[in-house]
Amino acid sequence: MSAILPPAERLWWKHPLDRVEGTWIVIALVWCLMMFVMMVGWHVYGRQNLSPETYRTNPEQFSAKAQAMVDKYTVRTETADKIPVVHPPAGSDVYLVARLWAWWPIIELEKDKTYRLHLTSMDYNHGFSLQPTNINIQVVPGFEHVVKVTPNQSGQFSVVCNEYCGINHHTMVGRIYVK
Ligand code: CUA
Questions:
Q1: Tens digit of pLDDT for each residue in 22-37?
Q2: What range defines the domain where residue 28 resides?
Q3: β-strand partners of 138
Q4: Which residue from 7, 41, 100, 119 lies 20 to 30 Å from 50 (Cα-Cα)?
Q5: Cβ < 6 A, ligand 1 pocket
Q6: DSSP strand pairing (93-99 vs 102-104)
């Protein structure tokens, strides 16, 4: 038999199973099952997996809530685009909007205080990646993800878009301050 000629026996599933082939199938199956169990296991034992709450939303609804927060708690603006820097009270709901190709607004949080961070996208899929930490959240249009965050380190953090979203994907960078 050669690779360029069709096999004499075309119904491959009727061929007897080779011992080695069978062994590999069993190994692969056991490994798949182990990884499947680990997905659940990491939620309990791994510290990096988030369990966000998710709700249905739409751009109008979410922007209204984000705008209300910005109107109430803006403390200054930054960059040439005058992006508002919002300092919401500890324990409150914080809204971050993802769109082509920006994160809005800039958020200022207090160290060791807990917030509910709400995320959505106004257009396409984006990814919320908090640098330099190992936090990654899909930001999907039509859905509002709510993540409980308690910053335990002060400084300036960057929010990088981690989901390819078009020609200016690489410029989609936001900012979070922790004081
Ligand atoms: Cu937004 Cu890539």
A1: 999 999 999 999 999 9
A2: 13-45
A3: 127
A4: 100
A5: 101, 126, 161, 163-165, 169, 172
A6: antiparallel
